[in-house]
C-alpha cells in the first residue's frame, strides 16, 4: 500500500473517530444538567479528534502537492 493510500485509510478512521466524539458530545448536551461535570472530558476528546484529523488532512494535501 502506498503512503498516500495508507494516509487516506488513516484519515477515514480518524474521521469516524471524530464523528463519534462529536455525537458523544451532542448526546451529553441533550442530557444536561445530568453529567455536566463530564463536559470538559467529552469536549477535549472531540477537540483532539478533530485536531488530529485536520493535521492528517494537511499531511495528505502536502503529499499530493509534491
Automatic annotation (TrEMBL):
It comes from the Bacteria. Residues 4-63 form a coiled coil. Keywords: Coiled coil, Nitrogen fixation. Gene3D superfamilies: Helix hairpin bin. InterPro entries: Helix_hairpin_bin_sf, Put_N_fixation. Belongs to the UPF0437 family. This is Rop-like family nitrogen fixation protein. The lineage of its organism: Bacteria, Pseudomonadati, Pseudomonadota, Alphaproteobacteria, Hyphomicrobiales.
Amino acid at each position: 500500500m502506498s503512503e498516500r493510500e495508507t494516509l487516506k485509510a488513516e484519515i477515514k478512521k480518524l474521521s469516524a473517530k471524530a464523528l463519534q466524539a462529536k455525537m458523544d458530545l451532542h448526546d451529553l448536551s441533550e442530557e444536561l444538567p445530568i453529567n455536566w461535570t463530564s463536559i470538559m472530558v467529552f469536549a477535549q476528546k472531540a477537540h483532539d479528534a478533530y485536531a488530529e484529523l485536520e493535521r492528517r488532512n494537511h499531511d495528505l494535501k502536502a503529499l499530493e502537492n509534491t
